[in-house]
Write a structure and sequence with these properties.
Elements (H helix, E strand, L loop, with lengths): L6 H17 L1 H17 L3 E5 L4 H7 L2 H8 L4 E7 L3 H4 L7 E5 L14 E5 L4 H5 L8 H7 L16 H10 L11 E6 L11 H14 L2 E6 L15 E2 L7 H10 L2 E5 L2 H9 L3 E4 L15 E4 L26 H4 L3 H14 L3
């Protein structure tokens, strides 16, 4: 039907639809969804809200246990981005998960008494803009809501059927004894201060293939125009989008994840897959999984971990030291970490 309309009107209607979904739809739909959940469970709700950033959403999950202690016999609702809804549903913390299109949730709105309390955790740098965080991301988010956590490890539980279906969809063999190792690498695209060079990634891939019988998966490349899609010896996911819950399933099947400072590090920790993180601006002790196999590799430069200083060092763009922390990170220590982690294996 839209095809009979003038091109300019079709474009205007598409733009209006996009605007409605991003700015209006949640404000209309969420109250009815929440009312249905409260009636179904016969409880008022407590809301935990972290909409943006995959890693941050995962690192918010450990707050669920303490929220339940503070608010017994209440419906625990987790609000996150639409892309992360199915991923968060793999956790055992929330009672219900709402996927928002693009909505900054108000921490003061009680929706006619249906909500008892709203927790909207933020990081130190989000609150101040100047001070760098000096504790783990999990503790930083929880601390913004006045919580000190005892069990700090986010956990996801992808069912066997999801893992097998996702592997099959991507032409990969299901985990079995004696099969070739499955390693995932996450190169970016990300902020320039987090990235490692194409040449170093290629050298690492070549060295892994030279010593191990392995399939290497490439995540996080953000489309087929990314230079990392030209890496040789990898299975690339550039041609189709991997949903967050499918990413969880794939990483759960892997023997090892090697990643820049990004969401897959936290996913690996949540499913117990060993992970190697490549760090420069961020300190790995503030990012690696607290209770799952993980190690960080860094280059020794004077300006290392600049993000944790006050005033905070560089983060998203540019760098007065030309991002020497990542440029001077050699392949040899990363490959040594690969050998050590593969020797230990999954717990």
């Amino acid at each position: 039907m839209l095809n009979v309309l003038p091109a300019w009107l079709r474009q205007a209607l598409k733009a209006l639809k996009k605007w409605f979904r991003a700015r209006v739809a949640d404000h209309i739909y969420f109250p009815f969804w929440l009312l249905g959940q409260c009636l179904r469970h016969r409880q008022r709700a407590v809301v935990l809200c972290r909409i943006f950033a995959l890693g941050d959403a995962l690192c918010t999950l450990p707050m669920c246990a303490q929220i339940r202690q503070r608010h017994p016999k209440r419906l625990l609702v987790f609000i996150t981005g639409t892309d992360y809804k199915k991923m968060i549903q793999l956790a055992r913390g929330p009672d219900a998960v709402y996927g928002a299109q693009s909505w900054t949730f108000s921490a003061t709105h009680r929706f006619f008494g249906l909500i008892e309390k709203i927790y909207a955790p933020k990081t130190t740098d989000e609150v101040s803009g100047e001070a760098g965080p000096t504790r783990h991301l999990i503790d930083d988010l929880a601390g913004s809501c006045g919580m000190a956590l005892s069990d700090r490890q986010p956990r996801l539980y992808p069912p066997k059927e999801l893992i097998e279906r996702t592997l099959a969809r991507n032409g990969l063999a299901a985990p079995s004894a004696g099969r070739r190792k499955l390693i995932a690498i996450n190169c970016g695209r990300s902020w320039p201060v987090k990235e490692w060079s194409f040449a170093r990634w290629q050298e690492l891939v070549d060295r892994i293939h030279g010593e191990y019988d392995t399939t290497i998966l490439l995540f996080g490349i953000g489309g087929d125009q990314n230079e990392y899609t030209r890496l040789r010896g990898i299975e690339s996911f550039a041609n189709h989008r991997v949903a967050a819950h499918e990413l969880v399933a794939l990483i759960a099947a892997c023997d090892l994840v090697i990643s820049i400072d990004s969401g897959p590090v936290h996913v690996a920790g949540a499913v117990g897959t060993p992970v190697i993180g490549l760090y420069g601006a961020n300190d790995p002790q503030y990012r690696l999984p607290p209770a799952s196999p993980g190690t960080g590799v860094v280059a020794e430069v004077p300006c290392l971990f600049c993000h944790h200083r006050t005033p905070r060092g560089h983060w998203k763009t540019g760098c007065p030291h030309e991002i020497c922390c990542m440029k001077e990170l050699e392949v040899a220590p990363v490959f040594q970490a690969v050998k050590q982690m593969l020797a230990v294996g999954k717990s």
